[in-house]
């Protein structure tokens, strides 16, 4: 099927030349013969530049949103889906026929779909490293799966413990460890969250939302202790396909 109308899509973020989305959708448009469809990176240093993109980009039909704007973009949108409202973060924007901007969260869907096949009956609780926009979709997905979770942050708060509190007992209780921070993303591939990796076992799942590199230092360290590991590539593919569905409905 050939689509001959002109439509533009894009990714909103900061320092996103490495982005998965542009390659994914460009290839999709070529393979599925969507002629006149393009996908580009909107790389901005601060969210205040977002309204200018909307004003100056013709035929814009949909956007993905990545770090660090998943929460910051919300005040610029006209409405949110029920799930995006609950999650408090947006990674997909639909441009409605009336020219309104509606925010959705497809991260949670991608994460849920990619984690589910790994789960065993003993996987009851998860630690989420990081408290940024990406962590919110993860938390929502865990709630839908009936898995308890605790956030881990640099500073302890009502909502999170800090890294210094992680010990053998906590690792025994929490057997899914999820890195939702950008630590370890290319080019800084030597970096990894400062957690006691010696407490990983073969009962643990180590999940990193990062997909570049495919095996981060976080994943390598966990794998050495026998943990099952998973990177964020499948999550990205699933969330991208969900975004495509939203843009076309």
Description:
Helix 4 packs across helix 5 and helix 4 crosses helix 8. This protein is an alpha/beta fold. The strands form two sheets. A six-stranded mixed β-sheet has the order 2-1-3-5-6-4, sandwiched between helices. The protein is 31% helix and 22% strand. The protein has eight helices and twelve strands. Strand 1, helix 1 and strand 2 form a beta-alpha-beta unit.
How would you summarize this macromolecular structure in one to three sentences?
The protein has 249 residues and is of the alpha/beta class. The chain has eight helices and twelve strands.
Q: Give the percentage of residues in beta strands.
A: 15-25%
The tally of helices reads 8
Please outline the major beta sheet: 6 strands, mixed
The neighbouring-strand order within the major sheet is 2-1-3-5-6-4
Query: What is the CA-atom radius of gyration, in angstroms?
Result: 19 Å
Class from secondary-structure proportions: alpha/beta
Sequence of secondary-structure elements: EHEHEEHEEHEHEEHEEHEH
The overall strand count is 12
- The separation of the N and C termini measures 17 Å
Taken from the alpha-carbon principal axes, the silhouette is: elongated
Helix percentage range: 25-40%
Low-confidence stretches: none
In round numbers, the mean pLDDT is 95
Keywords: Amino-acid biosynthesis, Aromatic amino acid biosynthesis, Oxidoreductase
Pathway: Metabolic intermediate biosynthesis; chorismate biosynthesis; chorismate from D-erythrose 4-phosphate and phosphoenolpyruvate: step 4/7
Organism: Flavobacterium pokkalii
Protein name: Shikimate dehydrogenase
């Amino acid at each position: 099927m050939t689509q001959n109308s002109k439509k533009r899509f894009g990714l909103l973020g900061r320092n996103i030349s490495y982005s998965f989305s542009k390659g994914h959708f460009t290839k999709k448009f070529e393979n599925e013969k969507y002629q006149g469809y393009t996908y580009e990176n909107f790389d901005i240093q601060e969210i205040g530049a977002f309204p200018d993109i909307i004003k100056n980009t013709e035929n814009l039909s949909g956007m993905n949103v990545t770090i660090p704007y998943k929460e910051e973009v919300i005040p610029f949108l006209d409405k949110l889906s029920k799930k995006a409202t609950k999650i408090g973060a947006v990674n997909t924007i639909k441009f409605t026929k009336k020219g309104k901007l509606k925010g959705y969260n497809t991260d949670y869907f991608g994460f849920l779909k990619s984690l589910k096949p790994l789960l065993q009956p003993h996987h009851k609780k998860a630690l989420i490293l990081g408290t940024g926009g990406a962590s919110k979709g993860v938390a929502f997905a865990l709630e839908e799966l009936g898995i308890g979770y605790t956030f881990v942050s640099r500073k302890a708060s009502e909502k999170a413990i800090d890294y210094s509190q992680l010990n053998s007992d906590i690792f025994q209780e929490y057997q899914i460890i999820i890195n939702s921070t950008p630590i370890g993303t290319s080019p800084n591939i030597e970096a990894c969250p400062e957690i006691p990796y010696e407490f990983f076992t073969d009962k643990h799942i180590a999940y990193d939302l990062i997909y570049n590199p495919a095996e981060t230092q976080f994943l390598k360290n966990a794998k050495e202790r026998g943990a099952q590991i998973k990177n964020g590539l499948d999550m990205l593919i699933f969330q991208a396909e969900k975004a495509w569905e939203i843009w076309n409905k």
